[in-house]
Amino acid sequence: MKINTLSGRFLLLTTIFVVLAEVLILLPGLANFREDYLLTRLERAQIASLALLTTDQMIEPDLEQELLNNAGVYNVVLRRDAVRQLVLSSPIPQPIADTYDLRESTFWTRVRDALSVLADPENHVIRVIGDPVQKGGLVIEVTLATGPMRIAMIEYGLRLLSLSAIVSGITAFLLFWLVRRLMVVPIKRVVAHMAAYAEAPEDARRIIAPEASIEELRVAEDALASMQRQLTAALKQKERLAQLGQAVAKISHDLRNILTTAQLFADRMEGSDDPVVQRAAPKLMSSIGRAVNLCETTLAFGRAEEPPPSLCRFPLAALVQEVTESEQPPADAAQIDFVTDVPPALEIRADREQLYRVLSNLVRNARQAIEATGKPGTIEIGAGEEPEGWWIRVQDTGPGLPERAREHLFQPFSGGVKKGGTGLGLAISAELIRGHGGRLDLVRTDADGTEFKMHLPREFAIASQD
Fold first, then answer.
1. Buried-exposed string 121-155: b where 16+ CB fall within 10 A, e elsewhere
2. Helix axes 352-373, 316-326, angle to 10 degrees
3. Which residues contact 382 (CB under 8 A, 6 or more apart)?
4. Is 422 inside any structural domain?
């Protein structure tokens, strides 16, 4: 099992917490064991001293030594009626190293003293003071060796560790198994579904079927299933659009050839002496030219080979004038006024032809939107310079964009503004502006009109200079 997996890390954390629990159990246990050990020695010493008191302080030395050995002490001092009396005694092998008063001990002092005994392997003699049991006196004192107490503490600690380790191990195993069963296995199932879906996202049979019993995992599976369904539907739509795009490209190619032939014949019509033909020929040429341009635009978009911008510095006002002149509505159409707010001295650095296509697309969409209402309107083109670069604004007084067009405004074949439109104009315009390192934004669209704004960065222009 790898440590960087969820199971491995959970096992590591479980082990750490089990060890911490062992320490938290062991330290108080050893402290209490030492306390009980000393209290037991005091109790045995008191019993031995009472046995001596019943004999009027007359006892054989061998019996006295046996009583001390059974109590596990060297000397016993019992204070009764404010008189300190050495009841039992034997030779002390070494000086007393320390004195402990069990009447004043606290939890932390007991833990500290227990650790000090375990840390010191030397055998010392200590004095222990405590209260006699059953009010058999005021104070009882004993002297004893720390060696046997340390051995007993070690044996007790090992037994406690063994028992707690078994209990903790069983608890950790059950906890690890439950967590793995309730969390890790369902997560692995989700991951397996994701991997299987990634191999064939168009296959709807690979969409995960939510079945987790845990609420959080069930929510995650529901979200994943929803995302997979949306992605599968989008991929199928993209596939259909790709097939449709190929068909449109083929049709546009053949239609462009037909229109080119028609354009040649229309060009010859301009030399006719018929006044009607002379008036109709320019409009026919303009219509055929727009149709050819639409075919070429469709083919260029289908190839996805839009050339990189050829940057040059030019006055923007002249370009805007060309666009407004080419987009003048027919005489029988609704009255549309073109308003330009472009400083005559403003020069920008961009691809002139590509920027012309972008402005032409935006102005044409605005003109068609106003013409669809049958009412007069205004199209305004403004521009200016800012520290980061330049901005160009195109706004109209049309009816605004429909909700369907706003959702997929810059997506080909999805963001058509007018009925029957392909949506290629705005998609290509946004792509051309991105090619300059800028962006095309929809600022607003409502019942009072629509406003687009494009930003062309200065840094891109400077970096592109030779």
1. eeebbbbbbbebeeebbeebbbbbbbeebbeebee
2. 40
3. 340, 341, 342, 392, 393, 395
4. yes
Q: What is the pLDDT of residue 343?
A: 94
Domain region containing 280: 202-305
For residue 460, the Cα-to-chain-centroid distance in whole angstroms is 33
Rounding to the nearest 10 degrees, give the CA dihedral for residues 282, 288, 289, 295: 170
Instruction: Please indicate, yes or no, whether the overall pTM of this predicted structure exceeds 0.70.
Output: no
CB 456 within 8 A of CB 319: no
- pLDDT 10s digits, 221-240: 888 888 888 888 888 777 77
Q: Tell me the per-residue pLDDT of 7-62, one tens digit each, with 9 for 90 and over.
A: 667 777 777 877 787 778 888 888 999 999 999 988 888 887 776 666 655 667 77
| Statement to judge: residues 130 and 76 lie in one domain | yes
- Which residues contact residue 41 at a Cβ distance below 8 angstroms, ignoring those fewer than 6 apart? 71, 72, 73, 128, 142, 144
Q: Is 442 helix (H, G, I), strand (E, B) or coil?
A: strand
Q: Which token pair is 367? A: 């003109």
Last residue of a domain, one of 285, 305, 325: 305
